[in-house]
Amino acid sequence: MRRLLFCLAFIALAAPMTTLTVAVKNTAGKPVDNASVIVRFVKGHDVLKLGKGIRREWDVRTNQEGVVKVPSIPQGQILIQVIAKNYQTFGQTFDVDETAKTIDVRLNPPQAQYSAH
Fold first, then answer.
1. Which domain, by its residues, includes 18?
2. Where are the beta strands (DSSP E) in the chain?
3. Contact, 78 vs 37, CB < 8 A?
4. What whole-number distance in Å separates Cα of residue 62 and Cα of residue 70?
5. Closest CA to 99 of 6, 18, 8, 3
6. What is the per-residue pLDDT across 15-53, written as a single tens digit (0 to 9) for each?
7. Above 90 in pLDDT, residue 101?
8. Domain assignment of residue 74, yes or no
């Protein structure tokens, strides 16, 4: 346990960290619960090292309010992808350089399907 705390303290001193909140809503402004939110590290940091494990991304789900809170991550460029049933997949990169950041995501309904036959 001490080793893990030491590693986390070392990471916190080595790179500025951000507490990230992602709020997912539909186009009508209603929360989308149980959406899969994937946060990938793109640029500005290699990976988040937790003890012996290395984390290159977080994969979490939104709560009933459509919100997910990601534990502290190093600042830099991240890719956020949101996948939810009955909605188009969302994907966008963001620059994160604050100690706390909230990103609002609006999901669109699926597009009509067309067939060439």
1. 2-107
2. 17-26, 36-43, 48-50, 53-55, 57-61, 67-74, 76-83, 90-96, 100-107
3. no
4. 11
5. 18
6. 788 899 999 999 999 999 999 999 998 865 545 555 555
7. yes
8. yes
